[in-house]
């Protein structure tokens, strides 16, 4: 099979307004990857005739396989069929089988079928009509100008049924699909995107199959490895081979795969080592504790948290020394270490972690906004404390502090 370029077009103004999250595109892409079909473009377009026609016209020029979801309903703003007819000239006809099904549905539910409902039975002349087992509007496949056009309802449940029961079997037979696409995500922390790319520059510049794609997020970076092969085993072997080369160069920063996050990884390490943890939080206001208890089974490793925002709360809740706070201030290495030690004792945990600093909007104790101290106190009461200067607004600084804490714990706990 030659390379098939696929494209996904999602129709609906509600998508552009952010009222509905476009989960259809991600799901369809995943199904196509399993069949070895590469998706080159995703786009969303509102319920506007001219813009729909423009997008369809461009898709027909560049793609072999175009999937369109949405705009097949009974209302006036459902314009997908009309826009495609405008660019193709393919006649719209009424499908009797679909119409019969619709009439039976309305009769069974004692509802009146209005004239505009008949629009959902409209298909393209010469097309393959796909049964909708969970709804009314059918799927439609049209071969026009050397491109296969696949039209499906935008309702996820209906789209998935048509895709699974009709579209994928049709494509398998028609395109003689005999390849698969597999991807693996490698997650790294403690190394920036630019440094990661630099360290792997030779591998990235020579990539063919598998491909290597760096993906940055807040406080960490990932590599997506994607391989195309005749079967799953061969694709996984190709990915394994390139992963070995990557780990030889930057493996010390690798913490996990695919859907695992750094919070989950730290939770697993604590559980494996049978360690418990407690947190004392000032500027983060309990955000670290919240991330921990988001993990299923957190009670096995998490003993508690103290949100000690004011100096007196550090003294009363954690039994810290008033003299220490007076001498060094709350935004200091000494205060951070005392918080970690005392929260460990108060909550009888093996590890204590603390956060203190200045999230803004104004400086505190002559410390600039963005100053953060994070301290870890281990089972032997040994401290590991670091000072950071984070940029961004108040929320960004707090988020960075929490992510950095998980990074520090990962490197403290990993074998």
TrEMBL record:
Indicate the secretion signal residues: none
Which InterPro entries does the UniProt record give? CinA, CinA-like_C, CinA_C, CinA_KH, Competence-induced_CinA, MoaB/Mog-like_dom_sf, MoaB/Mog_dom
Pfam families for this protein = CinA (PF02464), CinA_KH (PF18146), MoCF_biosynth (PF00994)
Q: Which residues form a coiled coil?
A: 225-252
Q: Which domain of life is it from?
A: Bacteria
Task: Give the UniProt keywords, A-Z.
Answer: Coiled coil
The MoaB/Mog domain extends over 7-174
PANTHER family reported for this sequence: NICOTINAMIDE-NUCLEOTIDE AMIDOHYDROLASE PNCC (PTHR13939), NMN AMIDOHYDROLASE-LIKE PROTEIN YFAY (PTHR13939:SF0)
Q: What is this protein called?
A: Putative competence-damage inducible protein
Native species: Gracilibacillus thailandensis
What does UniProt list as this organism's lineage? Bacteria, Bacillati, Bacillota, Bacilli, Bacillales
């Amino acid at each position: 099979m030659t390379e098939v370029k696929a494209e996904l077009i999602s129709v609906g103004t509600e998508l552009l307004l952010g009222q509905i999250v476009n989960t259809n595109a991600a799901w369809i892409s995943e199904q196509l990857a399993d069949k070895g079909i590469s998706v080159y473009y995703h786009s969303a377009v509102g319920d506007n005739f001219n813009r729909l026609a423009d997008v369809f016209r461009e898709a027909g020029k560049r793609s072999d396989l175009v999937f369109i979801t949405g705009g097949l309903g009974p209302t006036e703003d459902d314009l997908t069929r009309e826009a495609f007819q405008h660019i193709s000239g393919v006649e719209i006809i009424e499908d009797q089988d679909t119409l019969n099904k619709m009439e039976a549905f309305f009769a069974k539910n004692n509802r009146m079928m209005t004239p505009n409902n008949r629009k959902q039975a409209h298909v393209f002349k010469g097309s393959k009509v796909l049964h909708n087992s969970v709804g009314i509007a059918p799927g439609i496949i049209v071969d026009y100008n050397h491109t296969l056009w696949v039209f499906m309802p935008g309702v996820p449940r209906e789209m998935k049924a048509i895709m699974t029961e009709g579209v994928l079997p049709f494509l398998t037979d028609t395109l003689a699909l005999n390849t698969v696409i597999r991807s693996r995500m490698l997650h790294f922390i403690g190394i920036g995107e630019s440094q990661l790319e630099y360290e792997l520059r030779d591998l990235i510049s020579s990539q063919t199959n598998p491909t290597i794609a760096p993906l940055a997020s807040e406080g960490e970076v990932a590599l997506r490895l994607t391989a195309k092969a005749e079967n799953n085993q061969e694709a996984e072997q190709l990915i394994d081979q390139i992963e070995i080369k990557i780990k030889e160069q930057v493996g010390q920063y690798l913490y996990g795969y695919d859907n695992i996050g750094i919070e989950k990884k730290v939770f697993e390490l604590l559980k494996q080592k049978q360690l418990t943890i407690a947190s004392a939080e000032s500027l983060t206001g309990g955000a670290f504790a919240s991330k921990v208890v988001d993990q299923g089974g957190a009670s096995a490793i998490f003993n508690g948290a103290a949100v000690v925002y004011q100096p007196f709360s550090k003294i009363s809740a954690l039994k810290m020394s008033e003299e220490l706070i007076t001498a060094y201030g709350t935004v200091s290495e000494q205060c951070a270490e005392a918080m970690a030690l005392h929260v460990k004792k108060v909550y009888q945990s093996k590890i204590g972690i603390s956060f203190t600093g200045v999230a803004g909007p104004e400086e505190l104790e002559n410390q600039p906004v963005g100053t953060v101290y994070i301290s870890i106190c281990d089972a032997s009461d040994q401290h590991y404390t670091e000072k950071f200067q984070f940029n961004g607004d108040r929320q960004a600084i707090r988020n960075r502090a929490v992510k950095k804490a998980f990074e520090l714990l990962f490197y403290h706990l990993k074998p």
